[in-house]
Amino acid sequence: MCELLGMSANVPTDIRFSFAGLARRGGETGPHADGWGIGFYEGRGCRTFHDPEPSARSDLARLLRAYPIKSRIVVAHVRRANRGRVALENTHPFGRELWGRPWSFAHNGQLAGVKRLPLGRHRPIGTTDSEHAFCWLLGELEARWSALPSPRRLDAALPALFRRLGDLGVFNALLSDGRTLYAHCGKHLSVVTRRAPFGRATLLDEDLQVDFAAETTPNDVVSVVATRPLTRDEEWRELVPGETLALRAGEVATLPGSARAAALTKNQG
User: Fold this and answer.
1) Where are any strands of DSSP class E within 1-137?
2) Active site residue 185
3) Most exposed among 56, 128, 173, 213, judged by the fewest C-beta atoms under 10 Å?
4) pTM for this structure?
């Protein structure tokens, strides 16, 4: 299985601390040694880096750990190959243009029979089931709307599309159009939100600690999604299988139609 990392913030924010923990899992503290990638949204653009080398030993990953790129939305992934050979074209996150915006997608899990799903104009470059799922998702969205829909409309449509892919196997995924970061839990995914009063956090995979109070303002809000918690001294919430989140400007909302939303509605009734 691969591992995911996503971030949403209300101000451009440095991801290096969290990425340092994820990168160690790419061949050192974890077996995900078959490539890695990361995408940073900047305005309407997305700056992406991919490497088929293990992130724990990648010169490019070391460069990014030293280079303070700040972004409001980040999507990252370390890969353990199960479908598709180890190659640059098979590294996540995958990117495509839709409605004049750069979309990013990263997935872990296996989706049996996903390549039987029909595709529109978006076609895979590599051979992974993940990229086929991404192309299918975009085709389904494009068939519904000829122009960019509002975030509210996407919020309503995506949980059902994610559930359809989840019916094929394990579907843990991150998806973004640069406005919203969507996170879907098929089996394992956790989230933490950092806001004032900020404290210290220590990585689980590396002897590295940061004092967020010294790096932020009282108005900052930052949420991080990861396959497994990255720090040992913060309260991460584990998502329930089938739960879909929409993260905007650091705030987290569970979408109607996802598993946790249905459970909350039932409990309230």
Assistant:
1) 3-14, 36-42, 45-51, 70-78, 94-98, 101-108
2) no
3) 213
4) 0.93
